[in-house]
Prior knowledge:
CATH superfamily of the largest domain: Aldehyde Dehydrogenase, Chain A, domain 1
Number of strands: 23
CATH class of the largest domain: Alpha Beta
Strand order of the largest sheet: 14-17-18-13-12-20-21
Number of domains: 2
Strand content: 15-25%
Shape: globular
Distance between the termini: 67 Å
Largest sheet: 7 strands, mixed
CATH topology of the largest domain: Aldehyde Dehydrogenase, Chain A, domain 1
Radius of gyration: 24 Å
Amino acid sequence: MATVLDTKNLANLIGGEWVxxxxxxxxxxxxxxxxxxxxxxxxxxxxxxxxxxAKAAQKEWALVxxxxxxxxxxxxxxxxxxxKERLSKLLTMENGKVIEEARGExxxxxxxxxxxxxxxxxxxxxxxxxxxxxxxxxxxxxxVGVVGLITPWNFPIAIATWKSFPAIVAGxxxxxxxxxxxxxxAYELAKIFEEAGLPKGIVNVVFGSGQEVGDAMVQHEDIxxxxxxxxxxxxxxxxxxxxxxxxxxxxxxxGKNAVIxxxxxxxxxAVEGIVWSAFGTSGQRCTACSRVIVHESVKEKLEQxxxxxxxxxxxxxxxxxxxxxxxxxxxxxxxxxxxYIEIGKDEGAKLLAGGYVLNEGEMKDGNYFAPTxxxxxxxxxxxxxxxxxxxxVSLIPVGSFEEAIKVNNSVSYGLSSSIFTxxxxxxxxxxxxxxxxIVYINAGTTGAEIHLPFGGSKxxxxxxxxxxxxxxxxxxxxxxVYVDFSGKLQRAQIDVE
Length: 497
């Protein structure tokens, strides 16, 4: 494969063919403001073409034994590994995250390939005792058919692998709409699928807007599953539309995640966890820490340690190995973060650091925002309730462990939470009582591993999970099979003596 991006004009992948679109838009490097590539703005008709190709290919793919389907994912994993550094640099160019984080994201895709390939030999059903003589009963996982994947810009390859790999190994075909801000990872992963020998039409990539391509996918009667990661508002709309079509939908929509710091915590370790969780990826993670719930007896000491650590953060182009905080994805996100800074001030929170755009020197053409720390926030303030999606964290003082749990659970989201304490009793109470899908003990709110389910409760999702073996539930249906070898008609329940 080429060592750099081999085109300036991306095309859709439909039925194994690269198909250009009539309209396109520029993809901008958020670190420099420079155009990287043109991405198609596809139409509803393009989606329909992709679905027709996927339907035809899926019928044959479903007949391929699952262990053979898995062999393709093993090859995908090795190709990702071979191209890790090049892919990481391209990811940083289009997304902005610092290069060490980009490498970590590509590694997540590698790990997911090998993990989910292993599931090709573990697509287990169950055998059960039958209630009648000379009768056998079992259940099987079967593919759904054609599935639609709508992925975000903040993890353009990791989340795509969480969704596409289980769908593929389970025998489905995929229609994938990547975010228009970060289409390069989709293009590169599609080429890797080709090189790995995935049959034509099993993965189809349709670039375009949510209003055009996303809506067409949700409404298409032949796409039987929609897996979406993105905003709460868009997810709710997708769920409502999928409900009208009796279509399965998996939603992962965001978080307002908190790190709890108790009076007995290792404060230096807590500061490391907070800084990484709040300012890694410039706070543009659904698992980012945007609240620190701190016991009032150590609040001032924690503030000072955080301010000292934040002074050491370097902001700039993520391709520079010395940079720790990269740019914000686009200008509209900068504007949103700025609005929340003013909201926080108006609500009475105290701004200790940051709170402004960085636009001088080498950062003048990019989208940079200073790492920001509020203190003395109250749990009902908007900056403590609403997802900001930027490098902004608010300290909320509490007087007890019980109050900390209550404050953590007071938001409408339920993705990730964390507690720093040396008290084992509190540890077990916290992992029981924190109402999030992910709980960390003496670590930050980020860093999910691919063999465990990823997702949350309340406004974060609708009960399905990405990653882990649980992801297979999204892309399979259960079939019950009964084999009667009695040679006569036996009627369940009626003929039981």
